[in-house]
Design brief:
The chain is an alpha+beta fold. The protein folds into three domains: 2-42, no CATH class; 50-181, no CATH class; 208-288, VSR Endonuclease (Endonuclease, Chain A), CATH 3.40.960.10. Helix content is 41%, strand content 20%. The strands form four sheets. The protein has a four-stranded antiparallel beta sheet with strand order 1-2-4-3. Strand 10 and strand 11 form a beta hairpin. Helix 6 crosses helix 9, helix 7 crosses helix 9 (174-181) and helix 7 crosses helix 10 (191-202).
């Protein structure tokens, strides 16, 4: 009863619960509830992720505000930021609200045509407007990773991105946005693939083919994350599931077949991606080296 009347499906403003007489201040502050943002609490059974923080921010932001950027993208189904990352809220010019800690406020006009309301009543930017906010607010690698995911999920159309690339150069950060839009490729199946691809592009390296189907002598060998077919070079990102015992065995068999067919393979882990400059150096060296005959 409390959580439905005072918030969004398990998320509530503590002061409201107290003023309604449903909880005492002591119960709010010392009970089992989890503080999500300053003054906003949640049922402890809820998953502590970025979407939870979005719901908390939605309870605090002014009626004219909307969730935008990566937060809106997460609501639309794109990979969400980490729990500790700030929620992006877009407010119209002249709004004095700055939000609590854990909320990043961006000031911009958002016409009604750019606003959607989800089943919980949370206002957020439309897919096209979200793409623009992501491209202008985030580092280019992060932005392209999010936009790749939106295109792959069918939430965002590549044609819409092409139209936005034609926006007048005077629009705030339009040059930055166009650069990100030009690198979007919905074939990428994970943010790490997108990050590596973007890093290569920024370094001036030839563009790889995402999710490339390797066929040797008419025999299908594998679908790989990134490939430079003319150089017979492959880059594979090993996520956490790759380190499962059975998956390791499958990967080893697969990579052995690729190497036997004359392909060179660079395997990357999350630790490698923390040093992207080194990754680019490795890829550049491999591209310069003679391909196997």
């Amino acid at each position: 009863m409390l959580l439905r009347s005072s918030g969004l499906h398990g998320v509530f403003v503590g002061a409201h619960a107290v003023s309604e007489g449903v909880l005492t201040r002591h119960q709010v502050q010392n009970g089992p509830y989890v503080r999500v943002l300053h003054g906003v609490y949640a049922d402890p059974s809820l998953v502590r992720d970025h979407l939870l923080r979005c719901r908390a921010a939605a309870l605090l932001m002014p009626p004219s505000a909307v969730l935008g950027g990566r937060s809106a993208a997460a609501l639309l189904g794109a990979p969400a930021p980490a729990y500790a990352d700030p929620v992006t809220v877009v407010v119209p010019p002249g709004t004095k609200w700055r939000g609590p800690g854990g909320v990043r406020v961006h000031t911009a006009d958002v016409p009604a045509s750019d606003v959607l309301v989800d089943e919980e009543g949370i206002r957020h930017t439309s897919p096209v407007r979200t793409a623009w906010e992501v491209a202008t607010l985030e580092p280019i690698g992060t932005a392209v990773g999010v936009l790749d995911a939106m295109v792959r999920a069918g939430v965002l159309d590549v044609g819409a991105l092409q139209q936005m690339q034609e926006r007048p150069p005077g629009v705030w950060r339009s040059r930055r946005a166009r650069r990100a839009f030009g690198l979007v490729d919905g074939r990428s199946e994970s943010p790490p693939e997108s990050w590596v691809r973007v890093a290569c592009a920024l370094a001036g390296l030839p563009a790889p083919v995402p999710q490339y189907e390797v066929i040797d002598g008419g025999v299908w060998l594998a679908r790989v994350d990134l490939a430079w077919p003319e150089r017979r070079l492959i880059v594979e990102y090993d996520g956490e599931y790759h380190f499962d015992g059975l998956q390791i065995a499958k990967d080893d068999v697969r990579l052995t077949a690729l190497i036997a067919a004359g392909w060179r393979v660079i395997r990357l882990s999350a630790a490698d991606l923390r040093h992207m400059d080194d990754v680019v150096v490795r890829i550049a060296a491999a591209l310069r080296a003679p391909a196997a005959g």
